[in-house]
Amino acid sequence: VIATNGDDGGGSVSLGGSGGGDTKVQNRPPDSVAGVAQRVLPSVVMIRVKAAQGEVGGTGFIVKGGYVITNNHVVSGGGGNGQIQIVFNDKKTLPATVKGTDPSSDVAVLQPQGQHSLPALTVGDSGAIAVGDPVIAIGSPLGLQGSVTTGIVSSLNRAVPTGGEGSGGDSSYLNAIQTDAAINPGNSGGPLVDAKGRVIGINTAIATLGGQSLGGEQQSGSIGLGFAIPINQAKRVAEEIIATGKVKQAKLGVLPDPRYQQGGARIMPQPVSGQDPVTKGGPADKAGLKPGDVITKIDDKPIEDATDLIAQIRSRAPGENIKVTYQRDGKESSVRVTLGSD
Prior knowledge:
This protein has helices at residues 33-40, 72-75, 231-244, 283-287, 306-314; strands spanning 44-51, 54-62, 68-70, 83-87, 93-102, 107-112, 134-139, 147-161, 173-179, 191-193, 199-206, 226-230, 250-251, 265-266, 294-298, 301-302, 321-328, 331-338, 340-341. A hairpin with a 4-residue loop joins strand 5 (93-102) and strand 6 (107-112). The chain has a six-stranded antiparallel β-barrel with strand order 1-2-3-6-5-4. The chain is mainly β and 342 residues long. It contains five helices and 19 strands.
């Protein structure tokens, strides 16, 4: 294609379309992606954590009481003593303090120091979502505040590592929602909302082609594998943090065998480093579970392996009564277990 000097006589040129300098917000139907985004965006914030080694960024969202919920690994990115700033959607910036954190579930609650007038998000029910449901992720990928991406719920009950510091052993996995909505570094802590704009998860990790560390903020792009903490679990953790400053986690009282790959989670047949496979007097012991038993289901949800069992128990509340299906000597049985706490 060659552009030539047309015989335009020096007059004005129009390529069509509207006149264009209008920057006002366009109204969209409330049930459209744009409509949902317009309602949710004012409640989403960018988080900056400044420390000696530099600045770490992430996302959070406002909940009742003016608190901001985000990921633990966002606020711990400054070494635990960084200066935290919250940048609201109207660009107002306030310092914030950490109300409390739970590395094992990768949840943190921040308290802004000062007044803001932006609304809290509506919390939904992650137990009511299904594979294929449309979702919207909002965050600050690479510092680009207020970025909106869409996708679907790709899978439920995915056992993924949280990447939280100080969360070794059975506290290092969570029962996550998998989504193909594009999630990139900086999205962590932002809301995953349903088609009505209700929060159903907290974006926490992406699987990348560059490494296996799902919980960290790697500088690699999304490949359509994002994970979010179900809001029902995160809400319970956040409410405990706000009420008491700490969190109690559910315990089954067994040591699952990480090497067992024949379906289900086998309780270790022998003690490990002096620790009993079934904690004496613990929930599993009281229910009659024994070393070598293979747990195949929790409340009729199949258990794939040890990490799957850990993630399932992690998602429950202390005191919750669950049905445990297990195999012993080739025979399947079920018992009710009331979960304890750490």
